TrEMBL record, chain A:
Belongs to the TRAPP small subunits family. Sedlin subfamily. InterPro entries: Longin-like_dom_sf (IPR011012), Sedlin (IPR006722), TRAPPC2L (IPR044760). This is Trafficking protein particle complex subunit 2-like protein. Gene3D superfamilies: 3.30.450.70. GO terms for biological process: endoplasmic reticulum to Golgi vesicle-mediated transport.
UniProtKB/TrEMBL annotation, chain B:
This is Trafficking protein particle complex subunit 6b. It comes from Anaeramoeba flamelloides. Residues 46-88 are annotated as: Disordered. Pfam families: TRAPP (PF04051). InterPro entries: NO_sig/Golgi_transp_ligand-bd (IPR024096), TRAPP_component (IPR007194), TRAPPC6/Trs33 (IPR037992).
Amino acid sequence: MKIVSIAILGKKNNPLYVYVTNEENKRKFEYIIHTSLDFFEEKVPLISPISKKSTQNQNDMYLGHLFPTEDYKVYGYLTNTNYKLVCIIDDSEIKEQEMKTLLNNLHTILVDAICNPFYITDEPITSKIFHLKILDLIGKK
Amino acid sequence: MSVSYSLLEQIIFESVHYVIRTVHSQSKVLDPEETNLRVKIATRFNEKEEKKKKEKEKGIEKDKEKKNENENQKENQQETVGNKKKDQENVPQLEFISSKTDIERNIINRLEIIGYRLGERTAERIAKNKPRFQEEVEKMRFVAKDIWTELFGKMVNNLRTNHQGKWMFQDDDFKLIRNISFTLSEELQNLNHQQNTRKNQQKQKQTTTTTNITMTESQKQILQSYLYIPCGIIRGALSAIGVECTVTGICEQLPACVFTAKIINKK
């Protein structure tokens, strides 16, 4: 499993943090992340009342028609406080449990970053420690 | 100096007011911060005008107050009748207290923002492990139960609504103001009077355990300043969940206070 990109979007769908492993394709992944926003809105009203805490909408966006050379899987995670976490993966073999734990850990890291008293809400996250933690998270898997 | 400063302020307020009116007259949706700003500017403007009128009458009122203080000292030995007269005599003093200066408003804003950020961050931490909120009721209950237990060790005692966007959080023993005591001489005399009445009440009812102290208007004004942070906490927690509102807090009897949240509906 190879994580290609991780992004965190705020309540007004503004990008708070975008990380791409391959810097050359950054624009492309930003575009993919942007298009995934529609899927967040689609999936939310379909949640049954007895659902899990934060939806894990699995967007299998096979971008065959847009990028005939590559396949990506885009996973989304909507927190209770309307933060959207997006994770783009290069491989096709992933256990759902792994992705869940990954996004869960990402959520804890995000909460730690938000609790920083010097952090202003709805601003891009520029903390170095946050960046290092995410690199750690990706490096493990 | 004071005259020219007030003129300058007037000019600034008028221009800001004009700008807000022209710029935002076209937009249908107003940010709650901006509406608050508008209200604040409007109230400040009115208070400025009232202040000017009062300054003219200041000379006359000072004499009146001195007379009232003398009367108060004589009447304190009486019971309920004396207190009623005191409240009435305190009315001109009230007007001075309620017209807040720039510095006070600034402080109130800062306190509220402190509470707001606190509320936001605690809500983030706690909501991480909670199931998704489906309805408004659940969100209010989240604040009333989870955030209150996290910050104050107990839940809100009573959560009410008028089903029209207004929610009231009543805490009968609010931790932040529980141990406040007033040490002004007037207040001590007040307390003595109240202890006498309380002894009579205790003979009749032996079930009440919390000692609720009723307060005069001036005490309530002083206590108001302690309630801005919790108001901000509620507002921050709710906005983190996605409910925009304005929160005000009132304390009627000393350990018990009520926070009302009015939800702002964006159309």
